[in-house]
Structures are given as structure tokens and as C-alpha cells.
Amino acid sequence: MSGTPTILVVCTGNVCRSPMLERLLQREVDAAHGSGVVSVRSAGTRALVGSPMDERSAQLLERLGGDPEGFAARALSEQVVAGADLVLTATPEHRSAVVSLDPRALRRTFTVHELAALCSAVPDDRLPRWEEPAGALAALAEAARARRGEVGRPPTTGLVDPFRRSDEVYAELEQQVREVLPDLARALRQR
């Protein structure tokens, strides 16, 4: 890990779930800490490399206040994982895929639901301060890990995959994102 501290979000095709969270989390860290302080990127375990966001996911992202413009899907690789200070995955299976590529990532890799639940259990005064962003991301992972025994288990299925599915599945994804985003944003906005 070097350069700009990075948060990596992982799903399957890198055209629905992970780019949506990439753009929403980037908006949050930019608003709190300034543009370019932390980079939020995404990748897919079976990425549709070079593809833009799925059209309906892009519409959902816009409804949530994000911008899908200029996005291009990329593949998950050992180098991509190694370059991330914090990794969020759509499902437990994606978490396993990340850790199988780089076992050292285990301590900094969480499902989206898991990190949201763990962060909600960390009091404001125990969340890391952002004097130094890379250190804050490492401290956030550590604070979340410390709460694992205190928080109920997150959903085992993770974020629903809407790709080429019904409008109802996209609506379910929207609800899930609306549920996890406040806790993730709170942890990333601490000053």
C-alpha cells in the first residue's frame, strides 16, 4: 500500500453494486476530508472489464445522489487488493475471493453489511480521527474487528445482485444501500 489511501469495493461484474458504493463513499469522504485525500475504487471477481455501470444501477445511483459518469469496470487482482487500505465486499463469497488472492487482506476486509454493523457499534469517541487518512482506515478496520464479538451476525447473503433481474431486485438493492450507507459514512466522516 502506497500513495493515496484507498478503499476498495468488490462485487462480481463491477457494474452494479460495487460502482454504486464506490461513488457514494467517494462522495462522503470528499465532503468530509477534501477531494483526493482518500481514493475509493471498485473491482469485480468476474468483471465486465471496461463496461460502464449497468443502466438501472446508474439510475439508482443518481437517485441516491451519486454520479455514474466515466465509470469503467475493472477486474479484481492481487495487486488491486494489495493496494487497498480497507476492502468492502458485497457478499461473504466476495470476501473469500479477496482473501484468497491476498491472505494478508483478511484483517482489513469486511462485507459491507458487516462493516456497517460493526461501525454502528463503535461509539463516536472510539471511531478513528482523520489526522492521517491511511492510519485512519487501518484504525477503522481495527476498531471494527474489536467489536466482532459484540455485534449480531450480518446477513449471510450480502447485497443482492440486481444484474439483469427485475425492478423489484433493484428496489431491494436500493433499500440495502440506504440501510448501510449512514453507518459507513459516519465512520468515514470522523474528524
Shape: globular
Low-pLDDT windows of residues: none
Number of domains: 1
- The CATH topology is given as Rossmann fold
Strand line-up across the major sheet: 2-1-3-4
Whole-number average pLDDT? 91
Distance between the termini: 23 Å
Strand % is 5-15%
Describe the structure.
It is a single chain. The chain is of the alpha/beta class and 191 residues long. It is 46% helix and 10% strand. The protein has helices at residues 17-33, 55-63, 78-82, 92-101, 112-120, 133-146, 167-189, and strands spanning 6-11, 39-44, 86-89, 109-111. The protein has a 4-stranded parallel beta sheet with strand order 2-1-3-4, sandwiched between helices. The mean pLDDT is 91.
List the helices and strands and how they pair.
Layout: E1 6-11, H1 17-33, E2 39-44, H2 55-63, H3 78-82, E3 86-89, H4 92-101, E4 109-111, H5 112-120, H6 133-146, H7 167-189
Parallel strand pairs: 1-2, 1-3, 3-4
Helix pairs in contact: 1-2, 1-7, 5-7
Short description:
By secondary structure, the chain is of the alpha/beta class. The chain has seven helices and four strands, in the order E-H-E-H-H-E-H-E-H-H-H.
What key phrases describe this protein's structure?
191 residues; alpha/beta; Rossmann fold; four-stranded parallel β-sheet; 46% helix; 10% strand
